[in-house]
Amino acid sequence: MKIALGADHKGYELKNHIAEYLRTLGHEIKDFGTYSNRSCDYPVFARRVSRGVSCGRYDRGVLACQTGIGMSMAGKIIRGARAALCFDNHDAEMSRKHNDSNIIVFSAGKTDYHAAKSMLEVWLNTEFEGGRHMRRVLEMDGLYTMVGVSLLSKNSEEMKTDLLAEKIKSFEACGVDEIHFDVIDGKYNDGENNWDYQGPLVIKDLRKVSELPFMAHLMTEDPIKYVKAFGDAGCDVVVFHAEAYRNMPEFIEKTIEEINSCGMQAGIAIEPDTPVNLVFPYLDSLDRVLVMTVNTGFAGQGFIDKTDKIRDLAKMRDKYEFWIAVDGGINKDTAALCRKAGANMLYAASYIQKSENPKAAIELLRG
After folding, report:
1. Any catalytic annotation for residue 182?
2. All structural domains of the chain
3. Helices of type H across the chain
4. pLDDT in tens, 127-164
């Protein structure tokens, strides 16, 4: 059986013990993280496991967090994912018989490894009864679009840490899901605008003011050199451009491995003119693909319609689990086009930051 595992920092140790146990039983395991005990957001890992199970890439899933409640809620958002929080063998048995649960969730605060092991044995060996329960299972549904806010400015005053901290706090209060940092070394491209570089020191200071996931979007030459610094600064995700290593595929693989080894999720970004199939060989190792709908290095551009790329990537999610993110010219209209094509992570800058009601703007992007 192929089983996907995920946990936040509180469930990290229990997840690792469960993975070892399942391997001894001969199951094929995919660990979607978290990869360290550093504080993180449980929905990130719940959605990755849920997507893998719902699309049939994995037969079952296992999630863990402190209470199990957050994971069980987040694990039900994806259509076809049925996450059940279990505290004893009876819970595990009935979740299979009556609910056809395909993800079991543990409370790391209340369930030790031995109890989890016993529940897993029951859960893995109990069949769904079907019958009248089938109709109820088919009625379960859910979907969610993530929204991140991009921080980018040519004005050094706007890049001061205290001002950025206030912005991030306000975005968090409005319900944004992630903070996107544009990291520009001035060498990756030769655009007309020389934007200020936002380095690890800035992010390290901002890490103190928010628990939101931080994503560093590296528009840099030789991005592997920067990965560890951003991991040490407190980033949760690093996305680098495939174009930086267009003729060196081995470095794309090494960069993904380096990002994961630093306890972060890995993503690849592609420019509007880059063929989307360039990233296909790496989809099994990626957490997300970032489709650029503007050309990096040039401010004030309009949305470049690349929904064909999004649709091509969406087809690949029948086999692989990753987010399709879009960055550039995102507003309520272009967001709708991207969602319809299959995107589930949208980054916006001015549309959110210049809105009179940022909270309403974020909800409009979600659809």
Report:
1. yes
2. 2-138 (3.40.1400.10), 146-366 (3.20.20.70)
3. 12-24, 42-54, 69-74, 89-97, 113-124, 132-138, 161-173, 200-206, 227-233, 249-261, 307-316, 332-341, 350-353, 358-366
4. 999 877 775 666 554 356 889 998 865 555 566 788 88
